[in-house]
Write a structure and sequence with these properties.
8 strands
Length: 262
C-alpha cells in the first residue's frame, strides 16, 4: 500500500463518527483577518470544557479533525486551527524537508500563540466554558502545547504528544519548551517514545529536571516514555502507529484532562 506522510493511507486509520456532534470547518476571526478552523462539540452540550487541538507538522488534515471528534465524544468542545494559513498549503507537500523549509520555518511562535488565543475567544462566543481550558498537540503541535501552557495563564492543563523540547523548526522559534518549563501556568502531561530519533532521551531527561525546578504547575507536570514506540505513535494513519501505546496514552490524556478540567 502506498503511503504519503501528509495524507496517510494505513489500514489502521481510525474514523470517528460525527453522530451526536455539531462539527465543521469555520472561518475563525483572528488578529489579522480570518483563518480556517475545525470544531467538534456534543450537540446537546451546555458550556463544555474546551480543548485546543494543535496540528501536526502536516497542518489541519483529517487525522487532526478526527482527534477533535474523539474529544467531543468525551464531552469537550475541541477546536483545531489551520496555523500555516498565511505561509502556504501543507497538504500540497510530500517532501518533509521542503515542507519545513517553505512553510514551517516561516511560522513564528508569536503568530501561533495569537491564533490559539483567538480560538479561545471564538469558542467562548460559541458557548464553551473557557474557564476549563486545555491544550493538546502532536509532533509540531506537541512542542506548541508546552509553549501555550507557559503563555496563557488561563490554561488549566496540557497534553503534549512527542513534541520537540530543546529545538524548533526554524530561526523564528527563539525559545523552546525547556526554556519555559519553569514558567508553566498549567500542568502538562508529556507523552514520548523512547525510540523517537528526533527527540533524544537526553532532552526528555533535561526537561524533567527543568520541570522539577519550576512553578507549582511545572512540578505537577509528568512525562511518560513508551519504551517500544518512536515518533508519532498515536498517528493511526501512519506506519509509526503503535496501537497498544496509543490506547494507553489516550486513556492517560483523558484522565489528565478529567482531573484538571472537571
Amino acid at each position: 500500500m502506498s503511503f504519503s506522510p501528509i495524507t496517510g493511507s494505513a489500514e489502521t486509520t481510525v474514523h470517528t463518527s460525527a453522530d451526536g456532534l455539531r462539527h465543521g470547518l469555520v472561518d475563525m476571526p483572528t488578529f489579522d483577518g480570518t483563518i480556517p478552523a475545525y470544531f467538534a462539540v456534543p450537540a446537546d452540550a451546555a458550556r463544555p470544557p474546551l480543548v485546543l487541538v494543535v496540528q501536526e507538522i502536516f497542518g489541519l488534515h483529517e487525522h487532526v479533525r478526527d482527534v477533535c471528534r474523539r474529544f467531543a465524544k468525551q464531552g469537550y468542545m475541541a477546536v483545531a486551527v489551520e496555523l500555516y494559513q498565511r505561509q502556504g498549503d501543507a497538504a500540497s507537500y510530500t517532501d518533509m524537508p521542503l515542507l519545513i523549509k517553505d512553510i514551517v520555518s516561516k511560522v513564528s511562535d508569536e503568530q501561533v500563540l495569537a491564533d490559539l488565543d483567538a480560538s479561545v475567544a471564538w469558542a467562548k462566543e460559541q458557548g464553551a466554558d473557557t474557564a476549563r481550558l486545555g491544550v493538546t498537540g502532536f509532533c509540531w503541535g506537541g512542542r506548541l502545547t508546552w509553549m501555550y501552557a507557559a503563555h496563557n495563564p488561563d490554561c488549566k492543563a496540557g497534553v503534549a504528544w512527542y513534541g520537540k523540547l530543546a529545538t524548533g523548526h526554524g530561526p523564528l522559534q527563539v525559545q523552546n519548551p525547556i526554556d519555559v518549563a519553569g514558567k508553566l501556568h498549567a500542568p502538562v502531561l508529556g507523552l514520548y517514545g523512547a525510540k523517537d530519533t528526533s527527540i533524544p532521551l537526553a532532552d526528555v531527561q533535561s526537561m524533567e529536571a527543568a520541570l522539577e525546578q519550576g512553578s507549582t504547575e511545572a512540578r505537577a507536570s509528568e512525562i511518560v516514555v513508551y519504551p517500544e514506540s518512536g515518533h508519532a505513535f498515536y498517528a493511526d494513519y501512519r506506519p509509526s502507529y503503535n496501537a497498544a501505546d496509543a490506547q494507553d496514552a489516550w486513556a492517560k490524556a483523558l484522565s489528565w484532562f478529567g482531573r484538571y478540567l472537571a
